[in-house]
Amino acid sequence: MAEFKHRNIIALRDLTREDIELLLATAENMREINSRDIKKVPTLRGKTIINLFYEASTRTRTSFEIAAKRLSADTVNISPSTSSATKGETLADTALNLLAMKPDIIVMRHAVSGAHYHLAKKVSCSVVNAGDGAHEHPSQGLLDLLTMKDWFGRLDGLKVAIVGDITHSRVARSDIQGLTKMGSHVYLAGPPTMMPPAVERLGSVTVCATMKEAIQDADVVMMLRIQQERQGKTLMPNAREYSRYFGLNPENLKLAKPGAMVMHPGPINRGVEMSSYVVDGSQSHILKQVENGVAVRMAMLYHVCGGELE
Ligand code: CP
Fold first, then answer.
1. What are the tens digits of pLDDT across the range 181-209?
2. Ligand 1 binding residues, C-beta < 6 A
3. pLDDT at 77
4. CA nearest 78: which of 33, 113, 108?
5. pTM of the prediction?
6. If you average pLDDT over residues 168-192, what whole number do you get?
7. Is residue 210 among the annotated active site residues?
8. Given CA atoms 143, 286, 108, 47 in this order, what sign does their dihedral have?
9. When comparing pLDDT for 183 and 87, which is higher?
10. Domain 12-136+291-305, CATH class in plain words
11. How far is the CA of 266 from the centre of ligand 1 (A)?
């Protein structure tokens, strides 16, 4: 089996296809632990993991914590409202002070794109990115890949449509990196105001003029959240108009391949990005994505710790 040589996981852009395959294979193995009555193994016993979340999170924070606990690591959660960031402490100083307590991994979410590269230069422990600004969200990208691979048994050759606020989406960036490295074909659609100017720099993608073009014959339709907190100004006339041109509903879903997967990283704006019929419908894999998130994060924590089994 290949060896994982990275101390940090900050972006799927930094990983090779072999690294991604290894993480997915490990996550597949980790799933067995999650189906046991007693969901705990001693793999990371004695390791300390700090979850440092400067932005809100339900899925990622909870799932990193569960992942760590299932591997018997000790976890500490820090949120901005209870940290000294509120008193003006810099990220570098926070990092050095946390490092003095000898953690093995810092899992961080931060609003600034690239903050993790800055952190990784300051600390000797591992750094895992739980989402940085509009840059990347590697654990989301990996869990999305795993969910598609589960369903199709492969990633190579899939047509994956990613629809919505591409400019501000770290999920889109990680998905593009992961999917194109694994041989999938990525089609992007979204309002022109939510499409980055040099979109081709995101990777080998096809940019579509309409949502219809992107989802036509797609194997997977990945809808994105409108990142209003990052937009700074209004980028759409109103939610109803957005939904009309870029929302997924049972009618336009028929354009995709029969039984196409419907995915969304969450949280969802029901009735805007997707109708509730689709969110809760038979083609939705949204909760499977969340379920796979635990196994993927177990694999990430395991490999940045050196991949040694106790
Ligand atoms: N998908 C995702 O990152 O969700 P949270 O913001 O709840 O972590």
1. 999 999 999 999 899 988 888 899 999 99
2. 57-60, 131, 137, 140, 265-267
3. 94
4. 108
5. 0.95
6. 97
7. no
8. negative
9. 183
10. alpha beta
11. 6
Q: How many CB atoms lie within 10 A of CB 38?
A: 6
Question: Is residue 60 annotated as a catalytic residue, yes or no?
Answer: yes
Marked catalytic residue, from 26, 31, 47, 60: 60
Among 60, 140, 297, which is best to mutate for testing ligand 1, by the most ligand atoms less than 8 A from CB? 60
Q: Catalytic: 59?
A: yes
- The contacts of residue 278 (CB under 8 Å, 6+ apart) are 248, 249, 250, 253, 262, 284
Query: Strands of 220-223's sheet, edge to edge?
Result: 205-207, 185-189, 159-163, 220-223, 261-263
* Calpha distance 155→165 (Å, rounded): 24
205-233 residue pLDDT tens = 999 999 999 999 999 999 999 877 766 66
Segments making up each domain of the chain, as ranges: 12-136+291-305, 138-290
**Fold match, 12-136+291-305 / 138-290:** yes
Q: Give the pLDDT score at 308.
A: 65
Q: What is the pLDDT of residue 230?
A: 64
Mutate to test the pocket of ligand 1, among 51, 52, 53, 59 (most ligand atoms within 8 A of CB): 59
**CATH number for the domain formed by residue range(s) 138-290:** 3.40.50.1370
Q: Which atom of ligand 1 is nearest to the CA of 140?
A: 1
Region class of 183: left (phi > 0), else alpha (psi between -120 and 50), else beta: left
